[in-house]
Each structure stands twice: as C-alpha cells, then as structure tokens.
C-alpha cells in the first residue's frame, strides 16, 4: 500500500480535521489570474486533481482523444515539490495530472465530465482510502470559458446528483510540477502492486463501466 494510505493514515485524519476548508494559500491562489498553456503538437493541456495521481492518470489515459496524462503536483506555490514533501503535508500542492488531449476528439467539457465521473467530489481532503489535503479535489481553469464550464458542471451536479455537497475547488491554473519518474505510468508498470489491485483498477473499471462512450 502507498505510504499515505497506510503509515500516515492517522496523521492525515488529523490534518483533515484541522483543515476543514480552503487554506489561506488556497484563498490567495483563487485571486490570481490563470496561466494559459500552449498546445504541444496540436494537443491542448488540462489539469485536474482528484486523489491518487496513479489512479487519475490511468482514468484519463483510457479516454479517447487523450494522448497522455502525466502525474505531478499543482495547487500550491512551493517550487520543485517532492513526493515526500507533498505526502507529509509540507506543501499546499495536491497530487494532480497534466492531460494532453486532442480538442478535435475530446472537448474540455467532456474532460470535466470524466473528472467528476471518476471520483467522489463530496469527500473533503480525501479520495477512497487516501486522506489529506494533497488528495483534495481540484479542477484547474486556464481561461474564463473553462471556469464557466467547471462551475456550470458543479451547479448541475449539485442540483441533480449531490444535493449541494460537492467540495471540489475551482482554482486558476498556475504551475504544474512533474512527479518523480517512478510515479509515471505506475498502474501500467506495476499491475500487481496491492494498491493498484485494490484501489486503482477498481476505480478505473468503475469509470469504464459508467462512461463507455469515452
């Protein structure tokens, strides 16, 4: 099991209790102007956080039109964060993914549907067995159109599914830090890992069953 899911469980429960809402850093970041990334070989980039990046990477890479999803860290202001720092709550970053997608095949709106459809957006500072602010749900926007798509999706889901319980943060994208190499494509490279078997694959399969058109 991951360090954060086993050895640090008690610490993360305590951290979650002490930080029931957006931190001061979250509030400062929410006031910043978003950074617009440039396309790479025709592929646009989008950024999401919804728990373990091993899980989220695998979900997005299963979507038609997504070339690649990269595991990393975003949502904080600290430079060059490491997995150890993020896992121990020493930064305000969340585990996040950078999604390279072909907008001719899959729209940003549909990526937002994938984002919400592959997690529980009502659990504060937690996703599945992983607890702590580094596992909080965040949808990052790079422009006003993306912000509106995210906010409209939250409004609709709150009205029709979650009865106003969504705790996902909507933040202007600032910077994505790529995670250490051994985290990349972890689900593909370590199919027999207990965490992959017990958490990542069931999450991926639930998404595939519910969103077969993607």
Automatic annotation (TrEMBL):
It comes from the Bacteria. The active site is at 52. Keywords: Oxidoreductase. GO terms for molecular function: L-methionine:thioredoxin-disulfide S-oxidoreductase activity; peptide-methionine (S)-S-oxide reductase activity. InterPro entries: Met_Sox_Rdtase_MsrA_dom, Met_Sox_Rdtase_MsrA_sf. It comes from Leeuwenhoekiella aestuarii. It catalyses: L-methionyl-[protein] + [thioredoxin]-disulfide + H2O = L-methionyl-(S)-S-oxide-[protein] + [thioredoxin]-dithiol; [thioredoxin]-disulfide + L-methionine + H2O = L-methionine (S)-S-oxide + [thioredoxin]-dithiol. Residues 46-195 form the Peptide methionine sulphoxide reductase MsrA domain. Belongs to the MsrA Met sulfoxide reductase family. It holds the Pfam family PMSR. The lineage of its organism: Bacteria, Pseudomonadati, Bacteroidota, Flavobacteriia, Flavobacteriales. Has an important function as a repair enzyme for proteins that have been inactivated by oxidation. Catalyzes the reversible oxidation-reduction of methionine sulfoxide in proteins to methionine. Its EC number is 1.8.4.11. This is Peptide methionine sulfoxide reductase MsrA. PANTHER family: PEPTIDE METHIONINE SULFOXIDE REDUCTASE, PEPTIDE METHIONINE SULFOXIDE REDUCTASE MSRA 2.
């Amino acid at each position: 099991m991951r360090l954060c899911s086993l050895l640090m469980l008690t610490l993360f429960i305590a951290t979650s209790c002490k930080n029931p809402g957006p931190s001061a850093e979250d509030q400062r970041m929410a006031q910043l102007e978003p950074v617009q990334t440039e396309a790479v070989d025709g592929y646009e980039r989008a950024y999401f956080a919804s728990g373990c990046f091993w899980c989220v990477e695998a979900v997005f890479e299963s979507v038609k039109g997504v070339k690649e999803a990269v595991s990393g860290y975003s949502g904080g202001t600290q430079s060059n964060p490491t997995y150890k720092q993020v896992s121990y709550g020493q930064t305000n970053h969340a585990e996040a993914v950078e999604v390279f997608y072909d907008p001719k095949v899959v729209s940003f709106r549909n990526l937002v549907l994938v984002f919400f459809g592959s997690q529980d957006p009502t659990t504060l500072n937690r996703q599945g067995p992983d607890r702590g602010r580094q596992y909080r749900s965040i949808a990052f926007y790079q422009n006003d159109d993306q912000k509106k798509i995210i906010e409209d999706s939250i409004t609709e889901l709150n009205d029709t599914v979650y009865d106003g319980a969504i705790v996902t943060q909507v933040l202007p994208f600032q910077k994505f830090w790529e995670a250490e190499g051994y985290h990349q494509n972890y689900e593909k490279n370590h199919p027999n890992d207990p965490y992959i078997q017990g958490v990542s694959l069931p999450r991926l399969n639930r998404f595939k069953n519910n969103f077969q058109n993607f």
